[in-house]
Amino acid sequence: MSAEALQTPGRGSGFADLFRSRFLLKLLVAKELKVRYRGSVLGLLWSYVKPAVQFVVFYVALGIFLNMERSPTNASGLPNYAIYLFSGIVLINFFTEALGNASRSIVGNGGLIKKIYLPRQLFPVASVWVSGVHFVPQIIILLVACLFNGWRPGLLQLAAAAAGFLIVALLATGLGLLFGAVNVYFRDAENLVDMLLMIATWASPVLYSWIMVRDKLGETFFTVYQLNPITVGVEAFHFAFWLPTTDGAESIPPHLLSVWIPVGLAISGLVLLTGQLVFRRLEGRFAQEL
């Protein structure tokens, strides 16, 4: 047998395995959904309940108590703050759920991994897909709310929304592969991911305006702030869903479409590549370490 035909046991073929094992990937996604809602009364309705409660809490605390909602007596607030807030929440919820579950997916499926061989990469990717299933009901609610507020999307808005979601999905997948692999060897990775997810909502303009960051911290820090792909994804969602519901007087970050969205895609792609390389390097000993 030639050396080229030999493969290290336990190592897959990277992203090619996702295409070859796409039916198995569908089964893993279905399994994750069934296990998650086994014995649950509401089932998939939790995809509506959780973001609704989160939205109400943030809207009351920030929109009403801290005057983030523009009103006749508060000209400094944001118009249609409810749309602004929810369009950020649906995207950040997708990211936090996808990364949190993907980073635990290998350890959580340790029993299966130790019994048979199947491409290990399927587990974190399946977790991201499950989060995508939960994302769909939330985006439908957002679309309905936007339509009631006069939203008439153009191709540019729809393209920006797709780009924003793609940026966050690539980032979540890349980090999920990275931390999912490292977590097998060092369980402290779970705690690190929990801290990152706690910071993620506040490190991007989900609850506040990007103008606050620029005015308070200056242009230099704002440029660093814009290098966060989640920030770019949220701003793309605001441009796509919130901005068309305003009177047009509001603004988006400079060069969002021409510079920051391509930069966000490039950074997320680099993170995905890095996560894939680390995952392939470590996956050979998953069964032994688990």
TrEMBL record:
It is a multi-pass membrane protein. It is found in: Cell inner membrane; Cell membrane. Pfam families: ABC2_membrane. It comes from the Bacteria. Residues 42-282 form the ABC transmembrane type-2 domain. Signal peptide: none annotated. The keyword Cell division does not apply. The chain crosses the membrane at residues 45-66, 78-96, 128-151, 158-186, 192-213, 225-245, 257-279. Keywords: Cell inner membrane, Cell membrane, Membrane, Transmembrane, Transmembrane helix, Transport. PANTHER family: INNER MEMBRANE TRANSPORT PERMEASE (PTHR30413), TRANSPORT PERMEASE PROTEIN (PTHR30413:SF8). Belongs to the ABC-2 integral membrane protein family. This is Transport permease protein. It comes from Arthrobacter koreensis.
